Every structure is written in C-alpha cells, then in structure tokens.
Amino acid sequence: MERGDVIEEERSQEGNQEEKDQEQEFDQHGIYNGLKRKFNSFDLEADGFTSNQGHVSPQALDWGTIMKLAFQSIGVVYGDLGTSPLYVLPGVFQTGVKHNDDILGVLSLIFYSLMLITLIKYVFIVLAANDNGDGGTFALYSLICRYAKVSLTPNQQAEDKEVSNYKLDVPNRRLKRASFVKSMLEKNQITKYFILLMTMLGTSMVIGDGILTPCISVLSAVGGVREATSALTDNMIMWISVAILIILFQIQRFGTDKIGYSFAPILTIWFIFIGTVGLYNFVKHDPGVIKAVNPMYIVKYFNRNKKNAWISLGGVILCLTGSEALFADLGHFSVRSIRISSCTIVFPSIVLAYFGQASYLRKHNQDASNAFYSSVPKPIYWPMFIVAVMAAIIASQSLISASFSIVQQSLALGCFPRVKVVHTSSKYKGQVYVPEINTLLMVACVGVTLGFKNTLQIGIAVAFVFTITSSFLVLVMVMIWKTNIYLIIIYALTIGLLEFLFLSSVLYKFVDGGYLPLLFALTLVTIMYLWSYGYRKTYMYELENKVSKGKLMEIASDPSIHRVPGLALFYTELVQGISPIFTHYVANVPVLHSILVFVSIKCLPISTVPLEERFLFHRLNSHERGMFRCVVRYGYKDARTEWESFKEVLVSQLKEFIRNDVLMSSELADHDKVANVDEEMVQREVRIVDDALNFGGVVHLMGEKEVMASKGSSFLKKLAINYAYNWLKRCVRQADEFFMIPRKRLLKVGMTYEI
C-alpha cells in the first residue's frame, strides 16, 4: 500500500470519528447552509459517503422542446450512422460477391447488429445510464465514482452527498453481489487504475473516431462523382475533401444549436431519400431479401466462408459507426428526444437503405464496389449525389460534438490538460465548443486525408468503445441498478459476445491501417494519464504537507504580521486544509488582508451543481480574525462564470454565512439575552467585509507550483514529472486564465514541490 493510501485510510477513520463527535457536541466552526447543520470536513480526508434514495432528474422538458431537440438531434447525432450506407457494403465485398447468398448473410449481420447494438443497447439501455442527462464514457465513470469510492484523487467531502444532483436512484432491496463488487472496486488499487485507464481509452477512441470518420465519409461521398464522370482523379477528390473538412471545422464555433438547425433539414432529406430509394430497390429488384431477417443466413454465411466471413466483420461494423455518438452527444439534447428521432426516422430509413442495396446487388453482383451510387435510379442520381455530399459533410458533426462533450467532462474531472471550453447556448448547458480540440481534429483529419487518401480501417476505434461501454454498463447494472443476474448474463452472451467478435475481427486488420486509430488513442491516453498522474501527485504532496490548524492560528495571532484593508482570495486545489504555499507566502510577505478567504474550485462527479449549493464556507478561527475557507463546487457541465458575477455571489454568500454562523452559535445560549449582541456582532463582521471591499478591494493570491521528482525517484518518474508533465503545464492554459482571474489584481507565489 502506498503512502497516500495509508493517509487516506487513516484520515477517513479520523473523519468518521469526528462525525460521531459532532452529533453529540456543538462545534462553532461548523458549516452551514441557511440554518441547517452540516459536518465539518475542513480537516477530513475523502470522507465516506453513501448513495441516497431519491434522484433529482434532469429538468423536465415540455413536449414542444422535446420535439425541437429531436429535430435538432437529426442534424448533429446521426450523421455518421446515417451515411454509413455509402461505404459498408463496398467495405465488406472488397473482392466482389463470391456467392449470391453471401449478400443475404451480410444483410442479416447488418440488420441484427443495428438491432442489437444501435437500437437495443444504445437507444434503450445505455441512454438510461446517463449522468443527470449527460452521456459518454466519462459520464459512466463519474456515475460509478459516486457510488463506489474509485476516484484516485482523494478530494471527496461529506458535504458532497448533500448536493441534490449527487444522489442516485437506487432500488431499496440490497443484493450481496452489488456490495461485493463495490467493496472489490474500493479496496483494490489496481482496479481503480484499470477503470481510469479504460475510461481514458474509451474517450480517446471516440476522439480518434472523430478524426477518421469525417475522412472516410467525405471521401466516399465526393468519390461518388466518378460514377457519372471519370474526369476527377484521386488527387482532385482528395483536395476537394480537404477543403470541405476545413470549412466544416471552421463553422464549429457557431455552436450546436445553430449547427443543428442548419443541418437537420439536410439530413432529414437524406434519410427520406435513402429510405425511399431503398424501398424502391427492394420492390423492383428482389423482395426476397426480406429472408435476411432469418439469422440462419448468418450461420450459412460463416459455414461457406469460414475465416473470410470472420474477417468481413471488420466491414460490417462500419454500419454501426456513430452509434457511440448517440450516448456521447446526449448532453447536447435529451434522452427522450434522441429516442424519438432514432425510432421514427433514423432506424427505419437506414434499414430500408441496406435492404434496398442488397436487393439491387442480388441482380447486379458486379456493382458491389460502388453499391450505393450504382443502386440509385439514374433520374435522381445528381440530386442524390448533392444530398449525399452534404450529408457526408454533416456526418462528421456527431463525433466532433461528442469530442467536445467528453473533453469537457474529462477536463473537469482532472484527466485532461486545461483547455478553453466555450458554452455556445444559454438554454442548454451541454452544448459546448473547445477551440483547441477543434483545431487538433481539423489538422489530424486533413493529415489523414492527405496521407492515406482512403481508409476503411476505422472499425477498431468503434469496437473498442463498444466493449468499454458494455463493461462499464455491466458495473452500473450490478452496483447501481441491481439488475437481475439472468438479464445481465443474457446481455453479455448476446450484445457482449457480438462486440467481442467485432473487436477480434478489426484487430486482424491492424497492420492494414487499423493501427491508426490505436495510435491516436494511445497518444491521447498518454497525455491524459501524464496530466492525471502529475495532478494527483501534486495534490497528495499538498495534502501531506498542509498547514495545521495550530500553525494557522499562530500565523493569525502573530503581531509581526501586519493586517491591511482588503479582501484576499487565496486559490488552492486542496479541499481538506490549507496549501503549504500559504506559509511560504507569509514567510516572504508578512502581510495579511483584513479578510482572507481560501478558495478551492472543485468539480464533483456530477453534471451540474445548483447555484444555491455551489459555495461551501468554513470559519477557520475566531470571529475577530476574518479567515474563511470556501469550496466552490461545479459539475462538469457548469460554465465558469465571469469574475465580476463570481465575486458578487461569493461576497453575498460569505455575508449570509457570517449571519448564519452567528445565529447558530447563539442557539447554545438564552436567545432573548443575546439577540441584540448577536445582531451587533453580525453587523460588525459584515461591516468589516464591506470596508475590506471599499478600501482595499479584491486581491487574488495564487500558487505557482514548480513540480519536481524527489531525489531517489526512478528514471521513469523523473521523465514523467520533470519533463512531460511540466511541458504540458507550460503548453496549456494557466490556472488564472482557466478560472478567468483578472491579472491586474493577481499576485503569484512561487514554490517548488518535490514529489
């Protein structure tokens, strides 16, 4: 067991004892929200918490808003899934159709893959595992973190469980296996690391998919013009695709709301077109392909082709590309809106498109390499081509938006370097734009398009995301939903087994371009893990070397330290205690402001924290010293407010806390005798705060930490901390930029941490 784990266990035990003591004895330094008593976690470490009954669901939406979101979601969520008919069958039959019934076998595989994974798994099961309306790999991770203490950064507090959105909707009946799994996850440090790495890998795979899928969608759509004219060469198609991709990424800054309204009509027309053409081809060429709903054709297909049938699964999985976006993009919309659009428009149109292409190919085996455009009736070829190109451009939107959402989540949970997150809608918190990620995706997309000109090996990213999501979903089923064990087994033996077969197949094509998504993913995982590792080590150093209460009282009462007018906000990431940078500051600048507030900005593993529950205050010493502790709690979807509004809310909440603190203290005495005294005390303290603002203003103090590996550290640790982590810190946005702190009133205090 590492030193940090020992500290966590010891402090957790101390915290539990302190909670028991507080139930019996009044502590004047407690925390209050209004007049409600809460536990003091100033000096507690990772206090234990349990899931409470009752779930605060996402804000109820009226049907008008739901239908509006359902319409918008068509333009954002389903682009990749909807344009997959452009390239799936050519990807499966790369060497042509060897047996006519192979078409039925492949069609049956496509039909049941869409039915089991896209419709049943994602639309009806995974969407239900949302985190207060937000989706994606990190949303599942945060959901698990709330129920089991698997977070590697020990910054949990007893008060966190009082936040309304923190509570989980858990069935009353207790099951031994749920407790066993929860206990196993909490006690095993290796399991905690494994879950975090799988979360990072799933996130990185979605971003990698967001790089490769736009390339293949646009190249496939633009390449269709060769059906009508051979004048365009591969290089010309490549450069046209690059231009289209650059334009697509440049319009991301306008936000999901505007993009959704602009793109939704085009994709709606696309779905109507492919559904209608599919129905036409089905009726005209070979209605007998309806036999593909019989899964025996899958068995016969594998019997005929054996290993080649297994390899062809790498092409079949392309029909599922974009399914993960249904969950990852959930924060931009709502569960009900996505279910409505999926079941009424998207799924029927895609199924008709595949049945129509299969019906056409049964009569025209030679057209397998260009199945989509060859099956389009000549009179509507050019309208279909124009809509297909537009749909392919839009197709990239689903995974681009998903990338923004999951980066926002991972950033808030301390697993991604600090980047700028722009909230593009005042109505929907989940609609965000990340400029740095947008630029990264654009450069990578253009690079892949120029370097490969065409690529069909994107299934590896899709298969990995499916497998990781299913693994986390099983944990949610066991621990949180407490699902019947037989249903879990059925899920694993059907959907889980199918996803495993897809994964094994795409790994076979690793050397044929399949390494590309893995390369992107491993690069991102490395960056994310290095950042998380450095952040966690820094936090543990501050926790182990935090300022004791005795030392703090000694500093506050030291006559050699001058008090000057002003409200000082001392920013620290530590939520249990005071950072050692404070003593370093006092030793070099022996001056304290009349009001000193230690501010910790903390992200909870939930999507949003109500404004009235955001600020958590402590009093650090007697009423005369003017020293307070404030933990500002955000969810990963909450926007950081501008400084002026943040200051107003903080000062208002501080005054309210002072009033409640004094009134709560008076409950121990005869209220009639001390009422006037209490009111005078409240007025005096509030006046001190007002005077501090009027005569000294607000001063921001922030630690500038230089992190170095301690002497005797291994070479790998020195490489990770001294070079990689510090390089990342220099490259990304600094803390004052990230928290929008005005630089004119900012003082940075430098200190070296040897970790």
Automatic annotation (TrEMBL):
Sequence ranges of Basic and acidic residues compositional bias: 1-19
Keywords recorded for this protein, A-Z: Ion transport, Membrane, Potassium, Potassium transport, Transmembrane, Transmembrane helix, Transport
Top-rank lineage group of the source organism: Eukaryota
MF annotations from Gene Ontology: potassium ion transmembrane transporter activity
InterPro entries for this protein: K+_transporter (IPR003855), K_trans_C (IPR053952), K_trans_N (IPR053951)
Gene Ontology CC, one term: plasma membrane
Subcellular location: Cell membrane; Membrane
The K+ potassium transporter C-terminal domain, residue ranges: 565-755
Its job: Potassium transporter.
UniProt family annotation: Belongs to the HAK/KUP transporter (TC 2.A.72.3) family.
Full protein name: Potassium transporter
Lineage, top ranks: Eukaryota, Viridiplantae, Streptophyta, Embryophyta, Tracheophyta
